[in-house]
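Quick one: structure for this chain?
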Amino acid sequence: MEEEIIRQLEGALAEYDDVKVQALKETITAQEGSKVARAKGKKHHADIVLWGWYEESKSNVKVTVKFEVLEKLRYLSSVQTKPLIQPIAKLESFEIQAQLSQEMSYLTLFTIGLVRLEAEDYEGAIARFTKALEFLPDAEQEIAKNTPLYVLYFYRGFAYQLQGVEYKTYYDIALDEHIFSTPTDGNADLDKGKLDQAIADYTQALNINPKYTAAYLNRGAAYSYKGELDQALADYNRALKINPEYALAYSNRGLAYSDKGELDQALADYNRALKINPKYAFVYYHRGNAYYDKGELEQAIADFTQALKINPKYTAAYINRGATYYDKGKLDQAIANFTQALNINPENTEVYNNRGTAYYKKGELEQAIDDYTQALKINPKYALVYYHRGNAYYYKGELEQAITDYTQALNINPENAEAYNNRGATYNDKGELEQALADYNRALKINPEYAEAHNNRGLAYYKKGELEQALADFNRALKINPEFSKAYKNRGLAYNDKGELDKTIADFTQALKINPEDAEAYNNRGIAYNDKGELDQAITDYNRALKINPNSAEAYSNRGSAYYDKGELDQAIADYTRSLNINPGYAEAYYSRGVIYGKKGELDQAIADYTQVLKINPEYTAAYINRGYDYRQKGELDKAIADYTQALKINPEDAQAYSNRGFAYYKKGELEQAIADYNRALKINPEYAQAYYSRGVIYGKKGELDQAIADFTRALKINPQDAQAYSNRGNAYSDKGELDQALADFNQALKINPEFAGFYYNRGNAYSNKGELDKAITDFTRALKINPQDTQAYSNRGFAYYKKGELDKAIANYTQALNLNPKDAEAYNNRGVVYSDKGELDQGIADFTQAIKINPKDAEAYNNRGTAYFKKGELDRAIDDYTQALKFNREYAEAYNNRGTAYFKKGELDQAIADYTQALKFNREYAEAYNNRGTAYFKKGELDRAITDYTQALKFNREYAEAYNSRGNAYYKKGKLDQAIVDFNLALNINPENAAFYNSRGNAYYDKRELDKAITDYTQALKINPENAGFYYNRGNAYSTKEELDQAIADYTRSLNINPGYAEAYYSRGVIYGKKGELDKAIADYTQVLKINPEYTAAYINRGYDYRQKGELDKAIADYTQVLKINPKLAIAYINRGVAYFKLGDEQKTIQDFKKAAKLYGEQGKIAKQQQILDLLK
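Got it. Here's what it folds into:
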C-alpha cells in the first residue's frame, strides 16, 4: 500500500520540477510520533513529511495519516499543526490506496501552492491550486476537513488578486488573515482580467461557504481596485453583518469611503477597527492617510508614527510620514523618513524621487540630483524623475543638463506638457527665446488650458519686448486661473514696462490678495510705487516683503533705493549693506551703495564698492564710469582716466564714458585731450547736450569765451530747460564783461529753477561786478535762504558788504561761512582783510594765520598777513611773509609790490625798486607797481624816473588818481608848480573826496603864493578829514604867510589838539608868538618841541633868541651851546651865542664865537657871510 501511494504521488507531481517524492521505508512507532518524523524529514531536506499507520480487523481497516509541513507557512498555519485522520470502513484495500493517494496529492499540491504563493510565484501557486482541484476528495471524506474546498478557491483568488495588482511600492497585506487591506492609490498597475478571476474564485468560495468573511473582505478589495466602490462597500457590509467585530472589514470599508472622498465615514471606520484591534499598524497608516487628505497633518503624522511603533519596518508609513512633513515644510524630517524607508528597501525608486524632491525644496540641489540619479539607475525609463532632475539642474544653473533631462523625459512621455513648459523656461533663461516659444507652444497644444505655460510664454514675449503678445498670454493665463498670482505679477511687470504704473500696482495688489505672504509681489509693487514717486508707500511694501522674507537681498536693495530717493542716505546704506550680507555677490547692491557713498563724499568707500562690483562683473561699464568719477573727485585723475578708458574698451560707442574722461582730462589741465574726448562723444551722439555743456566749460577755462557761449547755446537748443547751461553761459558773458547778457541768462536759469541757490549766487556775482551791491546782497541772501549751508554765498555776500564799506556785516558773513566750514582758508583770509581794513590788525593777523594753518602753501594768506604786519609797522615780519608768499608763488606780482613797499618804508629804496621791478616783470600792466616804484625814485630824488613811472601807471589806468597826485608831487618837487597843479586837478576830478589831493594842490598854491587858493584847498581837505593835524598845520602856515597870525595860531592849536606830539606845529606857533612879542608863550612852545624832539636845533635857537630878548642871557647861551653840541658845524648858533656873550660883556667869548662862525662859513663856501663876520671883528 505504501508503494502504491508513493507511486500515485509521484505521478500527480511529475510535471513539477521543483517537487520530488522520496520513500524512506523506515518505521516510526506511534510512540516516536511526529518529533521523529520531522527529524527524519529535516535530515533528508524535506519540506513535507507524510507518515502514519493502519490497523486491520475482521470487519474493516483504520488508516491514520500524519501530514507534516516542516517550515511554518505564512498563509496556512493549520496544515502544519493538525493531523489528518481518515477512518475507512467499507472499502477494499485497493480503494483505500487510491483514495489515500488522491488525498495526499491534493494536500501536497495545495501546500506547494501555498509555498509558491509565499515565494511570490503567483502563476506557480495558481497552477498548483488548479491541479489540486483535480485530486479533490469526495466531500464526505474527513481527511480534507481542515482544508475545505472554499479555502482553496479563496487562496487561488488571492493569488489572482496579487497578480492583478503589480505594486511598484510596498503594499500592505493582513497576512495572518489572508486578506487584502490596501486598495490601489495610483502606485499600482492593475490587471483587471486577473482581478475578475480573483472575484470569481472568491465568489466560488462564498457559494460553498456564504459565511466566509475573509472572502467578502478580499472580494471587496478586488472591487475597490477596480474602482467599483459600491460593490466593495456591499461586501464589507456583508462581512460585518456576519462578524460585527471584524476589524479588517472596518479598515477596508474605511479605505473605500476614503476613495469615495467620504473621509469622516472613513475615519469612523478606522476608529472602530482600532478599537477592536489597536495593534493594527496598517489601520493607523490608513487613518493617517485620511487625516492627510483632510489636511489635518499633525494627526496624520501621529498615526504614521503609531504605525511605526507597532511595525518599525513599515516603509509605507515612513514614506507617507515623510510626505506629510514635506507638506508642512519640515524638510529635514521628511528627508529623515525617506532615508529610513530606503534603509529598509534600497531599491525603491519612488522614495529616491521623493527624497530628491525634498532636497530640491531645501535648495540642496547636489543631493537632490544624486537621489534622482539613483532612482534612474534602478529605473532608467522613469520619465518623472528625469523631469525632476531637470528641474534641479535648472536651479543649479546647469541649463544644458536641464534641457537634456527634460528632453529625455519627453522621449519617454511625449505628452508631458510640464516638461515642455520647463524646457521652454530653460531656453528662456538661456536667451534662446524662439526655442522657448516653440516648447511653450507644444505644451499648450497638449493642454490648451495650461495656465502656467501661457504665463511662461508671456514671459518669453515680455523678454522679446513684444509686450502686447505678453499681455495677451498673461490675460489668458488669468482667464484659465483667476487665482494665478504669478500671472498677475508678470502682467504687472509688463504694465510697468509700458509705464502704466497704476495697472502695475493693481496687478501686484491682486496677486497679494491671492497670496498675502508673497514677498516678491510686495517688492515689485514697491518698485512701482517708487517709480511713481510714492516713496513712503514703496518703503511700506518693501517692509512687508522683508517681514515675510527677512533674507530677501533684493527687497533690502530696493528699500535702500527708496531711502536714497528720499535723501535718507544712511538708511539707504544700511539696507544695501544688509542686502550684501545676505548675497555677497549682488553687484547691483554694491553699485548702488557706491553711488550713495559717492554722494556723501565718502569716496574711498564708494571706490571700494565699485571695485567689488567689477570683481563680480568685470564688464560692468557703469561701475568703471562711477569709480572713475570718484577717483576724479579725489583728484586721482590718472586712475579716473584709466577707468573711463576701460569702459570704452568694453563699449567704444559709450558717449558718456568719453564725456567723463574728457572731464578728467579737463581737471588735469589737459584741455586739448578733454576737448578731443568731448568731440568723440558728440560724434557718437550729436544731441548730447551734456557734452556741449562740458566742452563749453573748457572753452571758458581757456578764455575762448565765444566758443564757450556757442557750446552752451547748442546745449540749450537741445535742452531749452537746462538751467545750468543758462547759468554757465551767463558766467561766460560775465567774464566777457557783457553783464547785461549775463544777467539775462541768470534770470532765465532762475525762471526754470527758482529754487536753485547757485543761480542766485551767480547773478549776485554779476550784480557785484556791475557795482549794484544791494542787488548782489539780495541775491546772495536768496541763495542762502534756499541753501543755508552755502559757505561761498556767505563769503561773497561778505565781500559785497566789504565793497559797500559795511565792514561789520562783511565780518559777520565771513564768520558764518567759517561756522559752517572751519576749514575754509579763503574765508579766514577774506575776514582777515576786513579786520585789517578796520584797523583791527591783530584779529586780521590771527585770521591770516589760521588760513595758513589750513593751507600752509597759501601764498595769498602770507601776502595779506604781511600787509597787516606792514600796517602795524612790523616791517621785518611783513617782509618775511611776503617772501614766504613768493616762495609758494614765484610769479606773485602783488607780493613783490607789497614787499617793495615794506622795503620802501624801511628806507631800503634800492631793494624796494628791485621788488617793484620784479612785480612789473610778471605783470607789465601793474599800475600800482609803477606808481610805487615812482614813489621810491621820488624818495631817492630821481624825479624824472619817478615821473616816468607815474606816467606809465597812468597809461594802464587812466583813472588812477593816486598816480596823478604822485606825479603832481614830483612836478611840485621839481618846482614845476603849474604842471603839478594840473595833475592834482586830474586826481581830484577822479576822486573829489580825497583830502590828501586837496592838501597837495594847496601846497602847490602855497608855494606859488596863491595863498587864498591854498587856504581854500586846505579847508576842503579838512572838511573831508577834520581830524588831520597836517592839514591844519599847512593852513596855519598859509595864514602865517598872509600875516593872519591869530588864524595861524588857531590852526596850529587845532593841529596840536589832534596830535599833541606834532613838534612842527609847536615850533610854528612858537615862531608866531615870538613875532607877536608873546615871548613866554613862544618859549613854552619851543620847550614843548624839545620835549618831543631834543635834537630840534631850530627850537633851541629860537628859544635862545627869545630868552635873549627877555634878557635871560645865560638861558640863551645854554640853548645855543646845546645846539652846538648837536651840530658843531652850525655857524648861526656861534653867532647867536656870540651876541649873547657880547650882551653879557664877555668880549673874548664873543670874538671866539664870531671867529668860529666865520671859519665855518668859509669852509661851507658862504663867503659873503664870512666877510660880514670878519667886518664885525675889525
